[in-house]
Amino acid sequence: MAKTIMVIDDSASLRSVVGIALKGAGYDVLEASDGRDALNKLTGQKVHLIVSDVNMPNMDGITFVKEVKKLSSYKFTPIMMLTTESQPEKKAAAREAGAKAWLVKPFQPPMLLDAVSKLVLP
């Protein structure tokens, strides 16, 4: 059975690029446009990894990480931030919130897939 990865980004084109790379590697992909949308779509189904942007309307990525970690079903789901941000303070805030990895845009699909393969739950 394919593993499911949720991709959260306010850019539809970026969600599409990430989705194509992940689907090409055999993953199932759920998409959300921001943190609030993602929380609404996390309804208890198994998600093996969450890939989230940091800067988004309604609910930013770091707030989303804090919120999703409060949900028993997703407390241990690994989260990778995929963002244009590279400030150490933002990285530290994301790590403190519970994010496991940080990938800076623009990214190369092989780099993304390599990071995903290391993080995705068995």
Automatic annotation (TrEMBL):
<feature type="modified residue" description="4-aspartylphosphate">
    <location>
        <position position="53"/>
    </location>
</feature>
<dbReference type="InterPro" id="IPR011006">
    <property type="entry name" value="CheY-like_superfamily"/>
</dbReference>
<dbReference type="Pfam" id="PF00072">
    <property type="entry name" value="Response_reg"/>
</dbReference>
<dbReference type="InterPro" id="IPR001789">
    <property type="entry name" value="Sig_transdc_resp-reg_receiver"/>
</dbReference>
<dbReference type="InterPro" id="IPR050595">
    <property type="entry name" value="Bact_response_regulator"/>
</dbReference>
<dbReference type="GO" id="GO:0000160">
    <property type="term" value="P:phosphorelay signal transduction system"/>
</dbReference>
<feature type="domain" description="Response regulatory">
    <location>
        <begin position="4"/>
        <end position="120"/>
    </location>
</feature>
<protein>
    <submittedName>
        <fullName>Response regulator</fullName>
    </submittedName>
</protein>
<keyword id="KW-0597">Phosphoprotein</keyword>
